[in-house]
Amino acid sequence: MRLRNLLIWDMRFQSRYGFYLLYTFLTLFYIVVLTAMPSSWRGYAAAVLIFSDPAAMGLFFMGAIVLLEKSQRITSFMAVAPLKAKEYVLSKVLSLNAIALVVAMILTLSAGGRNIVAVLVGTFMAGTLFTLCGVIVATKITSLNQFILATVPVEIVGFVPAILHLCGITPKSWGIYPANACMDLVAGREASMIGLVLCALIIAALFRASVGCVQKMWQEQGGVKI
Amino acid sequence: MIQVSNLSFSYTKKPFIQDMNFEVHEGEIFGFLGPSGAGKSTLQKILLGMLPGYTGSAIACGTECNRHDQDFYQSIGVDFEYSTMYEKLTARENLEFFSSLYRQRVRSIDELLSLVGLENDGDKKVTAYSKGMKSRLNFIKALVHDPKLLFLDEPTSGLDPTNSRMMKDVILEEKKKGKTILLTTHNMQDATELCDRVAFIVGGKIFALDSPHNLIMSRGAAKITYSWLDNDIEKTGSCQLDRASEDVTLKGLINENRLLSIHSSEPTLNDIFIDITGKTLV
Question: Which CATH architecture group holds B2-83+137-217?
Fold first, then answer.
């Protein structure tokens, strides 16, 4: 019940802070870009767009969300509320993934893609990976500049191998790399089962780490320096 | 409601909170008084379970404060000294959000808003609120889930005298309903008016703990100050109220009807604080 309430409110905050409006404009822009491309390119372009923006939005926006909550001292309140850190993290992951899934579906349809279920599963897995990385980084920073710098390694590790894999530059066996497995699904292709299992394991580990980081951030609002 | 025994805590190797012992009974308003850096906020954070690395025991609502789960906070309300609101949401939306995090039945938001005179401002965004309005909103946020134990940190800070009076009346109303209230303040006037008992805290130690009345009375009776004219020059004298009949000058002035003014004054809690701890409240 509390998770449901939290999720509804997180979506309201995101709407109030213009996330939905921003992604409406971005989606329209991406559709224009996709329709301007030769039809043989659209599938690849849509996969790159989905993977690097809506799926990765959690990585970019968690910094802004957590910094806003820190600046308005909401985190002080969270520390003394019956809210559990895992509910907080789950709500952020699900609310940001909701936007990512809608945008991914629209872009796939406008690029003429058919394997919608695979695209949505891939977007959800990549979105969860990136949002959890975003939560971990965001709990440790005090300014947006720090956040931008701290997310660069995640972007390199997350995007570069996946885009090289999509373009067939790296060997096919690299499909077991979790980001590459997600990219295969986002592109509507068959993904490595080992890669997907590894991805699920990494998501579980990152979820645990992000819950710990949120708990620590709330405690630090109480003055603990660990 | 709260039992603290042999409590010690330190942020560094140097001891900060040292061997504290006290109890707070159900339905009591208990004040922590002390200058900045005395340990009041640290003590409050320990009782809120935010500083788990203490030694000794601190039990709130039947739970050892460093072994609580998040459900511990179902029965605790905290009014921070600063605003903890989403500025882009209205006051009503903020209260709706915060109340959605609790399992128990919550209080009516309209009733809470009118309790502190914000009934006509509930649909304004918090960013448009003045400091005093934010302070009142923050206070009712702590009441939204009708907690048994309430932590108030400088609840009248930034309020004009009318709103300060209103806030104090609301606090006393909540006490009547059976809530236990822990008040952290610099304001001796508030403490005298509101608290059943107060603890003077300086350097992490409790210097005195009693009711404001007992503390005041323990440090001597009220004083009389009087003045008269002597060769067109105003002179003043003073004596203890309970020894007025022994003051020869005062008796002579009364007999000769030469008194210009006469006042009695009791020591304030602030005087007692300075007297006991040797510190002022800054």
Answer: 3-Layer(aba) Sandwich (3.40)
Q: What are phi and psi for residue A53, nearest 5 degrees?
A: -120, -80
Which residues are bridge partners to A30 per DSSP?
none
Closest CA to B40 of B118, B152, B165: B152
Q: From chain A, which residues contact B within 8 Å (Cβ)?
A: 1-2, 5-6, 9, 12-13, 16-17, 72-74, 76-77, 79-84, 219, 221-225
- The one-character DSSP state at B147 is -
Residue B51 touches chain A, beta carbons under 8 Å? yes
B10 touches chain A (CB under 8 A): no
DSSP assignment, residue B90?
B
Of the two residues A11 and A226, the one the predictor is more confident about is A11
Angle A57-71/A144-166 helices, nearest 10 degrees? 170
* Number of cross-chain residue pairs from A and B with Cβ atoms under 8 Å apart: 76
Backbone Cα Rg of chain A = 18
pLDDT value at A181 more than 90: yes
User: Closest Cα partner for A63 from A137, A155, A162?
Assistant: A137
Alpha carbon distance A106, A125 (integer Å): 18
Q: Can you tell me the distance from the alpha carbon of B111 to that of B119, in angstroms, rounded to the nearest whole number?
A: 8
Chain A CB contacts of B45 under 8 Å are 222-223
Tell me the percentage of chain A whose pLDDT exceeds 70: 97
Q: Compute the distance between CA of residue B152 and CA of residue A197 in angstroms, rounded to an integer.
A: 50
Query: Which residues from B are below 8 Å from A17, CB to CB?
Result: 88
State the best of B12, B84, B88, B95 to mutate against chain A, taking most chain A CBs within 10 Å: B84
Identity of the residue numbered B82: Y
Q: Is the ipTM of this complex over 0.85?
A: no
SS3 of residue B29 by DSSP: strand
On chain B, the residues whose CB falls within 8 A of the CB of A223 are: 11, 41-42, 45, 50-51
Name the residue facing A82 among B42, B71, B83 (closest C-beta). Answer: B71
Q: Is residue B9 packed enough to be buried (19+ CB in 10 Å), middle (13-18) or exposed (0-12)?
A: buried
For chain A, domain boundaries: 2-221
Write down the residue that tokens 């009791």 correspond to.
B266
Q: Where are the domains of chain B?
A: 2-83+137-217, 222-266
Q: Is residue A94 very low, low, confident or very high in pLDDT (cuts 50, 70, 90)?
A: very high
Q: Is residue A226 very low, low, confident or very high in pLDDT (cuts 50, 70, 90)? A: very low
